[in-house]
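Colleagues,

Please find the record for the three-part complex below.
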Amino acid sequence: MEITAREIAQKLNGEIAGDPEVRISAPARIEYGKPGNICFFANPKYEHYVYTSKASAILVNRSFVPARPVAATMIKVDDAYQAVAVLLEYFQSLKKSRRRGGLLSRLFPRYSKGRGTHVGKGTWIGDFVTIGRNCTIGRNCTIHPNVSIADNVTIGDDTVLYAGVRIYSDCKVGSRCILHSNCVIGSDGFGFAPQDDGSYRKIPQMGNAVIEDDVEIGAGTCVDRATMGSTIVHNGVKLDNLCQIAHNVEVGAHTVMAAESGAAGSAKIGEYCMFGGNSMVVGHISVADHTTLAADSVITKTIRKSGQTLMGYPAMDADKYKKAYVRFRQAAEEKE
Amino acid sequence: MEITAREIAQKLNGEIAGDPEVRISAPARIEYGKPGNICFFANPKYEHYVYTSKASAILVNRSFVPARPVAATMIKVDDAYQAVAVLLEYFQSLKKSRRRGGLLSRLFPRYSKGRGTHVGKGTWIGDFVTIGRNCTIGRNCTIHPNVSIADNVTIGDDTVLYAGVRIYSDCKVGSRCILHSNCVIGSDGFGFAPQDDGSYRKIPQMGNAVIEDDVEIGAGTCVDRATMGSTIVHNGVKLDNLCQIAHNVEVGAHTVMAAESGAAGSAKIGEYCMFGGNSMVVGHISVADHTTLAADSVITKTIRKSGQTLMGYPAMDADKYKKAYVRFRQAAEEKE
Amino acid sequence: MEITAREIAQKLNGEIAGDPEVRISAPARIEYGKPGNICFFANPKYEHYVYTSKASAILVNRSFVPARPVAATMIKVDDAYQAVAVLLEYFQSLKKSRRRGGLLSRLFPRYSKGRGTHVGKGTWIGDFVTIGRNCTIGRNCTIHPNVSIADNVTIGDDTVLYAGVRIYSDCKVGSRCILHSNCVIGSDGFGFAPQDDGSYRKIPQMGNAVIEDDVEIGAGTCVDRATMGSTIVHNGVKLDNLCQIAHNVEVGAHTVMAAESGAAGSAKIGEYCMFGGNSMVVGHISVADHTTLAADSVITKTIRKSGQTLMGYPAMDADKYKKAYVRFRQAAEEKE
């Protein structure tokens, strides 16, 4: 299955520099491009590959002015990074779609489904999946093998649950979500009442967890249910692997959190935030929209001003942190 | 199902201020309280809700003196936080209990169980659970679907294993424990002998992991087995999600560890400690009872004095850390 | 099953000091050694146990000169730590090997296997395992229950997958690997193209993840698939529990990463590195061979010089970090 550079340029509203009839069969990383490949160039660190690549075509930003001759056909677009998503979607659509099971597996399904549960048309359910009672699963979902869905769970349309996802009772997952393997939705919040003898008594966690639409949740990530009410992950949020969302947290729409980051109980994170890997927000505070938190940093107080970039523990303005860290580092050179 | 404020006060040894006959049907968070709800007030940050809440009743500490009139009936108790646990348990008990399976599933169970394994009365086992050989599972346990229990495992009474829990061979779990989805008990410790060529040779991990009674373990948390002997999580310990307990660690009774915290190999953590999120203890050291470790901090040396609050990396007295951090931050303002 | 100290010394090319005929039945930790046990002494912190242990034999380094009389038979070897691995392997081999399933389970297997999939001789597959289409599983593998393997996966010989391992489509796992429970191989990389309205569009992750030979991967650890090409974990790498390997990362041969550590997208980690717990490397940089990174530290820039020990955030020379931290700590004592 091949496509010409000209056809790709048409798809992406791009402009051609070079041979428009060169034939492309697959995408590749710019370091590894071979004849027949189309590669992508957006990060300036990789510019030297543009001049040495053996790829047939390279997708670049319209603003890119090559410093040296480029052998490959260049396809110039407004935003190469956005265009990559579109182009990869095209190539992925060429791959065969998932099987929907043979006659035998439809007659003798190897999954289990409780009473009162309804599964929408076009939804595929893998082997050894368990779905509890009174659940509603939407249309065209893909539920990979070995998933567990407890009672009274609602899932929207076109959602994908990879193998080993766990959803506790009473939780809701929206439409067009992607939940990766072994993520856990709705486990008990970490709430205990200290007793007079120093031991702890569990506080029942009676609420649920709500994952809205277009959310992607990484492998192994945990979203706890609320003590009362709901832990909410709003529309379009992207959580990477091994993140922790504690009880009663709200994550605002279109916020992205990198791997191993977390939010402690009742934290309220704004919209369009970006959290680096291994960062966290302590409990019972709120974080303004458009906040960027550097990797391995901790927000310890409510952030009211939106649009800040924070770093350190406690998190402070990132530029100040870096400046202060230079001083910290210099101290090692001073005499004592 | 309704109950009056007076009846609740009786359950909790509380005192009424306001209408004792107001009818309560459900608990709610104080921000969202509606008529028919009972809410809880303990954290001073939420005091303003006490005066504006539409809830029918509010549980408060006996010491609370309202600054303004309160429309809701107040139920005053010695410790509102402890009382919440009792009250939520009451409301949870009103919800229907888990199904125990129909006749069909009892005749043709969809789980597997090895030879020599004994399961106590009243224990419910979900679909696609695997239990190895020579295991002993106590009474009235709930083993949710898709759990794996290997050979020679012992589990006490009234323990709950949520979907996807993994227990390796030879491990022990006590009574009244709650293990959340996808936690792993008894995986191999991380032990390798460096070889002369720089590669590593696995050191067989021949011990086991022992979880004592009344322990709660969060989703995705891992407790490794010992090289020899046992990794031990003592009575009443509460581990949050995604924690790491390495081989040969001991976690003292009634210690609580927040999400993503960890203890490296052979660390010995005392009783009644509290660890913040993402904190850790390095290997081969011990930590005194009643130690509090702030989030994202690292204990690097044995702590002998009990009752300290520590912060930073390496962890030091928390107040000192905060003071030093103020200086660190000021350095960014100084001229160079 | 017993063996004499003399026989053990022969196996290990060791020298005896004490009674060579003392009989050993099991290994034990030096703190808990009893008659019939052999214990190991390598860490100087534990020297006092050498003099008080009730064990029948103690394995020590040839260079060890006891300060006091030792009751146990000492077996002196070049490297006690290496010898432990050999000796524990011996004791483990005495334990009965895993069952290979009865006739019934061979006739009516309770796992599922897609068309075109080939499983090598001697491979055991537990209940409720799912293997997709067109997979190749090598010989003498052990696939514990409740594992999910998607389509087009290749696995070498003698590899062990513990319960709940998830392998996404198109991934490769080598020979003699050990993958612990609930680890996830090949989940989507965290790649999204920001749209003009601030939301994100998923970038399809079309590559795969490749785990080479002799790799051990801890419980709950995630290795994402590449956007294009492969995420690669090279020969002999050891990853502890709950680690995160992002898309397009390469982990060099014989590198070890402790629990909760991680590498962000496209990071390239050298060979023979050692990463402490909870440490991380940011994306798109490379780290020289033989780099040691302290716990809870973050490498933020390419490290070209091999053999360094780094600490802090951003990571700097570890000795300098410690010195600077002393100054930081002193600041808390100064008057303001």
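Residues 142 and 160 of chain B are 5 Å apart (CA to CA).

Comments are welcome before we finalize the supplementary table.
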